[in-house]
Amino acid sequence: MVPFIDLFCVGDGEQTLSALIELVREAKRSGVGRDEIILQAGRTVPGVYAPRFYRPAYNIDGTLAGLEPTSDNLPRRISRACLPNLSDSPAISAPLVPLSEAVHDRVTIEIMRGCPHGCRFCQAGGTRKPVRWRSVEEILDTAGRAVAATGYREISLLSLSTSDYPHFSELIDRLNAEFVSRNISISLPSLRVDSQLAVIPKLTSKVRKSGLTIAAEAGSERLRRAIGKDITDEAMLAGVRAAWSAGFRSVKVYFLAGLPGETDADIDAIFDLCRRLSDTRKEVNGRRGNINAAVSWLVPRPHTPMQFSAMRDADYFWSVRNRLRDLSRRTPVQFKFHRIERSIIETVIARGDRRVSAVIEAAWRNGARFDAWNEYFDYEKWQAAFDETGINPDFYAHRERPVEELLPWDHIDSGRSRETLQLEYERMLKAII
Question: How does pLDDT run across 370-405, given as a tens digit for each residue?
């Protein structure tokens, strides 16, 4: 993205943005030009990266050889900005209310930033540590003022893993006491099924509960242990059984396919787990429950232990897709899959270096727009862009990275050292074996 972006703000943006705005204001008063503003921001504002002032060099095999600053006093490593306390980020108590119906027509409150778990595929959890949260009093105060200011009838509690909020049970009790009698519902979009078991009885008739969502990630406990997803089959089965009893009408389960060490048995375990989750409803009302399973293709992301892994090729993903569809015919389990071609492009962009920018621009000039929507996505336009630029997508997407290779994002501090990521990667491979 370097040719398209002047400055990147790495990490939490609240303090960085304030400092950047003040620098731009002062520079404009002083008549300083655009390039000088960008250079000064890269030199003086913590967490700001000015990529045009860094020059890459490449090895004969196409891998990155180095990235050097082209101007004095620029940091060789960009430190991530990290807000010490979440309360230092002002909660939005009077959001703008559109004059048309919005998709998310509700009050949204970020109750916690970061995730206490260490899933080895997850970029969001790994780059947002340490975990920080708002107090129960602050959340209640914000919710009350936001409801009064907007008239919304729903409050959504936002975080990467809402039920890991340290005062979760107290928060639900007090929100119920304050808002349920006023016909204002509480939405919990991100729950871990193992930690929500004690809370599910409190959700009956008091919290919007059209469906329960579980991020299982892998069908087998062996693979879940390897990728750091500490949730067992029994915990999921017990959680879904309690959800049926509490009146939940459907269950959605997220899976990743293409994990390192994955076998046909692991793919079969995806369907088997979904079937067992469906059967838990028999114990409640004698009928099998509907399970909607969403399967994504693993994108090995930077700043995670899996950054060294290769993405599986398209033929493998097609075989997984066909296998799961065959297994689930005439069952209450329905599978939906991400577009395989789109996931491959996502991987190329996620793991690419500056040379991939030529592909992005060429695809745009070919007419690529709104690629996240199936009706607009045209893989041929991207294939043409790869051909025009001479960029081989396999080099970025389907190549395992040796642990000694310099990676295009190594100069960005994500909060975990490269040594830590490498150690976690080795532990993952050992756990798979």
Answer: 999 999 999 999 999 999 999 999 999 999 999 999
CB atoms within 10 A of CB 227: 24
Q: Indicate whether 155 belongs to any domain.
A: yes
Within a domain: 341: yes
352 and 385 in a common domain: yes
Residues 10 and 112 in one domain: no
Give CA–CA dist 364/419, Å, rounded: 37
Question: What is the pLDDT averaged over residues 409-432?
Answer: 93
Question: Do both 262 and 355 map to the same domain?
Answer: yes
**Nearest partner of 289 among 255, 257, 352, 247, judged by Cα:** 247
pLDDT digits (tens, 9 = 90+) for 277-330: 999 999 888 889 899 999 999 999 999 999 999 999 999 999 999 999 999 999
- Residue 206: pLDDT band by 50, 70, 90 thresholds? low
Yes or no: say if 255 and 318 are a contact pair by the CB < 8 Å rule: no
Q: Which residue range forms the structural domain that includes residue 51? A: 2-69
- Work out whether the CA dihedral 256, 259, 263, 266 comes out positive or negative: negative
The mean pLDDT of 322-351, rounded to a whole number, is: 96
Give domain status of residue 399, yes or no: yes
Whether residue 168 contacts residue 116, with contact meaning beta carbons closer than 8 Å, is answered with: no
- How many structural domains compose the chain? 3
Single pTM value for the model: 0.90
Q: Is 270 helix (H, G, I), strand (E, B) or coil?
A: helix
In a domain, 8, yes or no: yes
Q: How far apart are CA 90 and CA 291, in angstroms?
A: 39
Q: Tokens 């009093």, residue?
A: 137
C-alpha–C-alpha distance, residues 382 and 368, integer Å: 8
Angle CA 260–266–271, to nearest 5: 135
Sign of the four-CA dihedral 26, 32, 34, 38: negative
CATH of the domain at 356: 3.30.750.200
